[in-house]
Amino acid sequence: MEFGIFVKFFVSLIAVVNPVGIMPVFVTLTQHMDESERIRTALVANLAMFIILCLSLVVGKYFLEMFSISINSFKIAGGMILLMIAFSMISGKIGEDKQNKQEQNESKIKEQIGIVPLALPLLAGPGAISATIVYGTKNPGIFNILATTLTLGIFAITCWILFRTSHLIVKFLGQTGINVITRIMGIVLASMGIEMIIQGIKLLLPGLG
């Protein structure tokens, strides 16, 4: 069990989810709430994200096997998803790639916006789910699973802290600062997506290596 593997997983989750970029969305969706309601919404959103990603970690591999999908094919597909999200982040679109217009309209009438749309699909989107399944499959074993779960827990706590201080951070950085961070994370995410695609192709077609 290598510590660096889980550091890389944590960094990849930060890049995939981009919680800093989602903060303005959280502020907008909770602007009508008082402080206690906003805290509860942040807790519900990150707890739901943690549960969704843990389920992906535990049953994701078996889900792929049920549909006869190889992990290498899933790596390529996941890498392409990461690239799509990265390009939208680089272009400055916050959350638009993870939430369609219908979901945006539905979120206005739902009481539990912590689950929809914050947890799913903004936090636990296809990119985060793909990354979790890939890392879980590459690092099997009970100790690695527990370490990965711990990493997911630390990531959820990190996002919760960011949401708790979102109004201060957004005010400090301004929309320009948020956009700069989003674009930087987009470049990092694009690099990870390309690496995932290349790894998948090499394993599917070893003659190219």
UniProtKB/TrEMBL annotation:
<feature type="transmembrane region" description="Helical">
    <location>
        <begin position="115"/>
        <end position="136"/>
    </location>
</feature>
<feature type="transmembrane region" description="Helical">
    <location>
        <begin position="184"/>
        <end position="205"/>
    </location>
</feature>
<dbReference type="GO" id="GO:0005886">
    <property type="term" value="C:plasma membrane"/>
</dbReference>
<keyword id="KW-0472">Membrane</keyword>
<feature type="transmembrane region" description="Helical">
    <location>
        <begin position="6"/>
        <end position="29"/>
    </location>
</feature>
<keyword id="KW-1133">Transmembrane helix</keyword>
<feature type="transmembrane region" description="Helical">
    <location>
        <begin position="142"/>
        <end position="163"/>
    </location>
</feature>
<protein>
    <recommendedName>
        <fullName>UPF0056 membrane protein</fullName>
    </recommendedName>
</protein>
<feature type="transmembrane region" description="Helical">
    <location>
        <begin position="41"/>
        <end position="64"/>
    </location>
</feature>
<comment type="similarity">
    <text>Belongs to the UPF0056 (MarC) family.</text>
</comment>
<dbReference type="Pfam" id="PF01914">
    <property type="entry name" value="MarC"/>
</dbReference>
<feature type="transmembrane region" description="Helical">
    <location>
        <begin position="76"/>
        <end position="94"/>
    </location>
</feature>
<keyword id="KW-1003">Cell membrane</keyword>
<dbReference type="InterPro" id="IPR002771">
    <property type="entry name" value="Multi_antbiot-R_MarC"/>
</dbReference>
<keyword id="KW-0812">Transmembrane</keyword>
